[in-house]
Amino acid sequence: MQKQEILNKAKVILKQEFIGINLVIDEVVDAISSWYLFPDLQEKPVVINLWGLTGVGKSSLVNRLAQLIDFDKKYFHFDLGENDTRDWAIKRQLEEIYENVNGYPILLALDEFQHARTLDETGKEMDKTASRIIWQLLDSGKFQISRYSYHLEELYDLIQKLRYLLKNGVRVSKGKVISKKEYFIEQMDLKKEYEKYENSETTLDTNNVLFVPTSFYEGIFSLAREQFSTRFEVREKLEALNGYETIKYLLDIFSIGNSPKPVDCSKGLIFVLGNLDEAYTMSNDFNPDMDADEFHEQSMKINVPIIKKALKRRFRNEQIARLGNIHIIYPAFSKKSFQIIIELELSKITEKVSRHLKIKLEFDQTVLDLIYREGVYPTQGTRPIFTTIHQIVNTKMGRVITEMILKNLTASRIVFRAIDNRIIADYYEKEVKIHSLSIQQQLNLENLRKNKQDDIQAITAVHEAGHAIISAILLHTVPEVIFSNSAEVGTGGFVYTKFKWKYISRKEITNRLALFLGGLAAEKIIFGEENITTGAEDDIEKATGFITEMLKQCGMGKLPAAYHAKDPQTRNYLHDEGSQLCKEAEIWISKAMTLAVKTLKEQEVLLLKMADYLSDNRQMNKHQATQLLENYAHNFDFDSLIENGDLLFYRHHLKEKVAAIEEKTERTPSMNSYEFSLNKKSPK
Asked: Which domains occur in the chain, in start order?
């Protein structure tokens, strides 16, 4: 009952400290409950997989959970990031488990698990010797590690020396040398240990000469730790033996020390933490202008089958099976979650200043908005936010407090505001403003987002308007947002479109290609053939990649087959040595470019109006784009716009076909009345 209360309390605290992942916290606490409440019933470790984008709090959640359930001293964190010392680091921590909590309930975290991959990008096996022990850990929790240490070499040398001394007349009783003591001390190089001073002369104290020097006790204990309850037992055992009994005993210790150590983590809880780019396809998009809510929505569609498919590109099937079925998927943070995180972080600063300086801090909404605009990269989690808060707030605190001292201000409250590229600190005594301090603030993203209203923005405006219009006219989807100026490095602008259907049909391939080429076509129409720019290289590459995939992988060419470059590894593919597919691809691209130019010429008024607006304003939302379509689109049916792609054609067409067959048949038995099997004949 007490443990259950601890779990319930931990869940409440975690939800207070971690924003936007309440469902994740519920799943984690539920998944660990049986392990935490009844660990002795467990025969194999419980494996819980946490997958998510970087900076969403996977490691922090596990670390905090370990503290809240009082397992922080029995918590072992393994960083599986790619580095040369990983094998050594893993073995060192496993040694620590063996020495301290072997066979007891423990908590382990395998962080950056994606780097433990055993298949490379081509699907070939990789040499991952260091990670083999990890897979044993995930399987049964029981494995063996080498006991080798420098103590083993020390013990071997000691045994050889003691044997030699016994052969040369040294005698031992109850662990102490009883004959040829001075010879023993000299041969063992122990003079400093047994020296004593009498009447300004140095002599040897031979009253109590141990056959095994105490400096070796720690090594003996560490090599055969399971043989002893305490280190004192080493001395007790050795002081009961004669010379040859001591040699035999040390040989036994050497044999134990030279054998593998059985590590038992079967009663453990193992968290597997990782970032899977193959599942979180948005992870490489660092554009700060992308809507956080959009990434959040995309991440909510990731499920366990998608995770397992992504894992197949890095691990073998039997390894994926060892990860079990508890896969907890982190969503990307929504805009609201980012805003709450900013508020919480500022409240921590407020509380700290109030506690130490007895001054109340307040942050105007303009400061929160500035931190969001400067600090939020939707796919990079919270880390950029924390550094931005440090840059905008923490670095100003010293100057703000110093100003109080220099001006001899007795302010009880300081309010921070943001205006343009300045942070304003207003000092209040009760409700009266007594002073203001203006501090310059370097703005990185805000400066990049400013409307340039120059040739670059004009070119980008025309280019992105071309993409947007093709999307609306040929693919019946109005873009969510259009940017003619973006803070992302190397990106002048972009169009973000959400297609409502989840497949690509043959009839839309040309239209999709036209969408890729719409920007280049728009430049050609507005600026002329001789004035088109090189900004379409990414579009051209995407168009070429799209059509070659359609022809080589998706069977959309003249022959439904899979093609690949000729190689011993691609023997199960056809090889297009005659470049027939290249010719097909060129025909598709040429046809799409012609269609894009034709469509945009027909919509030239709309193109000019949209481009003109975007040349003065850095973005256009879906509502604004729709209004332009309503006012300026030529011969366009608004009912053709697709807002729901679940029931466009295929189901309706199938049902129509079935209905037509039933009409031609006098009596059609219900298909549900039969049981079909590949091994049975159909009923007559």
From this structure: 2-146+264-333 (3.40.50.300), 151-259 (no CATH), 336-448 (1.10.8.60), 453-640 (1.20.58.760)
